[in-house]
Amino acid sequence: MAELFDNLIDRTSSSLSHPTGEGIVIDIGTGDGLFVYQSARQNPNKFYIGIDANPRPLEKVSEKIHRNPAKGGLPNVLFIQAALEDLPSELDGVADEVHVHFPWGSLLQAVATGDEKALRSLRRICAAGAVLEIIIGLDPERDRSEIERLGLQPLTSAYIEEELIPRYAAAGFEKLEGGVLAQTEWSKIKSSWAKRLKGSAGRTLVYIIAQVPVVHT
Ligand SMILES: C[S@@+](CC[C@H](N)C(=O)[O-])C[C@H]1O[C@@H](n2cnc3c(N)ncnc32)[C@H](O)[C@@H]1O
User: Which of 102, 189, 200 to mutate to test the pocket of ligand 1 (most atoms within 8 A of CB)?
Assistant: First the structure.
């Protein structure tokens, strides 16, 4: 299985120059931006873009990144208010990694049903060879009303392999893997929602990893 949660790119992106020379990482549904902020601190030669439809959770972290570096400022981060369904065209083909962690609402519906239009939006922002990582944490009991509202199927290994993966493949992703993660994986995820939900025994953690084909010249 590919390595999860860990800033998968350690190669030099052909499309980029310093200080983004190790790649551009886009986190969609970034929430309070914790994953983006912590990853950007650890990887100063990657550029991180956190995107969320809701501007409110982005307010604090957007202010923080503009401070003096000694006070938490970071030059390699940008936050954008946008929905997956309406990503700015300036992002087309720029991402070397795309992350979607603990999606909810329309974002959850898009990635958990393999919605064609949404998957094409994800594909559109990817550079050649980009890696897509999706982590979904659902509790069939506690999240029942949202699951029913969004019309989600149970995220079993069979559903992921037989239904979802072919939809991701049709949208232009390859080398697809998906399945259920062990509870021990919670602690590895840099995410406020992972921290919030990790005590919940009934919650299953599901992942999908995919790659955009590399262009050989
Ligand atoms: C449960 S939070 C997870 C936040 C963060 N990824 C984390 O792990 O802590 C889900 C986020 O998805 C965002 N979201 C929901 N639908 C979206 C959409 N269509 N496009 C972009 N963001 C969306 C919500 O505003 C919310 O901040």
Answer: 102
Classify 72 as helix, strand or coil: coil
Rounded to whole angstroms, how far apart are CA atoms 23 and 45?
Answer: 8
3-state secondary structure of 125: coil
> pTM for the whole thing?
0.91
Domain parsing of the chain, residue ranges: 24-211
**CA–CA dist 151, 203 (Å, integer):** 18
Question: Which residue is associated with the tokens 């922002």?
Answer: 125
How close is the Cα of 74 to the center of ligand 1, in Å?
22
Between 203 and 121, the more confident residue is 121
Interval between CA 31 and ligand 1 midpoint (Å)? 5
The structural architecture, per CATH, of the domain 24-211 is 3-Layer(aba) Sandwich (3.40)
